[in-house]
Design a protein that fits this description.
By secondary structure, this protein is of the alpha/beta class. About 30% of the residues lie in helices and about 15% in strands. It has 13 helices and 18 strands. The N terminus is likely disordered.
Length: about 525
């Protein structure tokens, strides 16, 4: 893994310690294929004894009511202390983190290994690290890899990381200032350490480390400089500064001149230390409006940094633009086109464009909720394949593996353990399928939409689905093609020369997708 200077040479040691950085990288938890760190820490239980991390007392509450009660108990316990207790666990270097995770993985083995589905067997040589598709706040796991982290008490992170230099305390990740100060030396930090080790191990083994730095007030230039260098040392190669500033409820949402200062400081650090492979990204925008906030962001940079005004985007202090999408399948390509048109008008269309969050479109829409199976078949394959086929975006992250709301989660908690839902398996299958693409395009008819692609390993595939309600659509099955559902099982039809597509079951979704595959190296 690439490293820069050690912490001993970074200076300003009192501002951000390695221990505090455990929280920065926790949600990457080794194995992430470009999944950025989740910025919210939803406490779901109170601290337990470090002596028995696998006991029933360390399990996540299985109901929202129990989670809320446990969170309140944790907050009351922190308040009773009168201050935030520092950890006595020694700091860990990147090399130590990689070694620790490697040893743990070797000793524990793949306890949760499962048999591969037919589609997984076909794609067995495609590692998830090659994918442009990733999870927002947790790693995509190889099918044979267990989490091997014990029982989780917290959905994402034991605490919300913050920095305190003795003068002021400000948030870096998330919105809970109270939970953000928790620093107990107990089971929570043990789990946090293991997650941190796996995150660093993943980035050292080809995964693309991406982090969201969230803040609620101006940051000094030395803080920005130090944060960039430390995150880079641990393997982070994309830093997203801020999260959903156009959300009406977001703190500090209109202080864009200060955001420009932060980006300028981060860009100066990148240039000073030759961090050429580090990308700085504009804050991911909430799925509101018609791109006007992106225009506002770009106009502010244009006004305050005349060095690039009416010039070239290569002089900008950022390399990526990010958007969030929680809309219907039918509006997806229009959204991508809108954002790209907004960038083109500002003459920055050569920048990389990411979807930093894509998620369940039926949660806040006032319509019938989609089941997890419907998301697995009628949303995830369509969104992911169209994103790559459009040619308009560079990376897509799905939100999320585990959220405080089960409606957004691709996994659930059962007896304190993470259990992957069908939607998770569909997402992993699509991430693997959409790797090694040499040629890809999309087309549509009155009744269907399809994505056709060729891979560099000789595999050719089509992802196809129905756009209509109330009736099945029948298509001819080309000779030599095998048909799979999105959970990886092979599908056989009474007429072997036909593919039968089911109608869509929800206005925000499409009909269940089918994958037609032929050829292999």
């Amino acid at each position: 893994m690439e490293t820069m200077e050690t912490m001993d040479r970074l200076g300003d040691r009192g501002k951000i310690s390695r221990r505090q950085l455990l929280g920065y990288l926790s949600a990457l938890a080794a194995g992430a294929a470009m999944g950025p760190v989740a910025v919210s820490a939803r406490a779901s239980g109170e601290p337990s004894s470090p002596s028995d991390p696998s006991s029933a007392q360390t399990q996540l509450p299985d109901t929202q009511e129990a989670a809320a009660q446990s969170e309140q108990q944790m907050i009351e316990a922190c308040l009773a202390r009168g201050n935030w207790l520092p950890s006595d666990i020694p700091s860990r270097s990147p090399a130590e983190a990689v070694a620790s995770c490697t040893a743990r993985r070797e000793s524990e083995g793949n306890k949760n290994a499962s048999a591969q589905t037919p589609l997984q067997q076909l794609l067995a040589n495609t590692p998830l690290t090659e994918s442009r598709i990733g999870l927002n706040n947790w790693p995509m796991m190889e099918e044979a890899e267990g989490l091997n982290l014990g029982h989780f008490r917290f959905a994402i992170s034991p605490y919300t990381p913050s920095v305190d230099d003795g003068k002021e305390r400000f948030l870096l990740f998330a919105n809970s200032p109270l939970a953000g100060g928790f620093r107990g030396r107990d089971y929570l930090e043990d789990v946090q350490r293991r997650m941190f080790d796996r995150a660093v191990w993943a980035m050292a083994n080809g995964c693309k480390g991406t982090v969201v730095v969230e803040f609620d007030r101006p940051l000094s230039i030395p803080r920005v400089d130090h944060t960039v260098r430390v995150l880079y040392e641990y393997g982070i190669r994309t830093i997203i500064w801020g999260n959903e500033p156009n959300d009406p409820g977001a703190a500090w949402r209109d202080n864009l001149p200060e955001l420009v200062k932060i980006f300028s400081a981060a860009a100066d650090t990148k240039k000073k230390y030759n961090l050429d492979d580090l990308d700085l990204c504009l804050p991911g925008m909430a799925y509101f409006g018609q791109g006007e906030y992106l225009q506002k962001l770009l106009s502010t940079f244009d006004a305050l940094l005349p060095g690039w005004s009416h010039g070239s985007s290569k002089y900008l202090p950022f390399q990526r633009v990010a958007d969030h999408y929680y809309g219907p399948v039918d509006g997806f390509l229009q959204r991508l086109t809108l954002m790209r048109e907004t960038m083109a008008k500002a003459r920055v269309n050569d920048l990389k464009f990411d979807l930093a969050e894509v998620g369940n479109p039926t949660v806040n829409s006032g319509q019938r909720r989609a089941t997890d199976q419907q998301l697995a078949e009628g949303y995830i394959p369509q969104i992911t394949s169209l994103a790559i086929a459009s040619g308009m975006m560079d990376r897509l992250y799905y939100y999320s593996l585990l959220d405080s709301s089960d409606d957004f989660s691709l996994a659930s908690v059962v007896n304190g353990n993470l259990v992957m839902k069908p939607s998770y398996h569909a997402f992993v299958n699509m991430a693997r399928l959409l790797s090694r693409i040499s040629k890809i395009s999309w087309s549509e008819s009155a009744e269907t939409m399809q994505v056709d692609a060729s891979r560099s390993d000789g595999i050719q595939f089509t992802v196809v689905w129905s756009k209509v309600d109330g009736k099945e659509v029948t298509l001819p099955l080309p000779a030599g093609k095998r048909v799979f559902d999105l959970l990886g099982a092979e599908v056989k039809y009474p007429n072997p020369r036909q593919v039968v597509l089911k109608p869509r079951e929800n206005p925000a979704l499409a009909g269940a997708a089918r994958v037609l595959v032929s050829g292999a190296s």
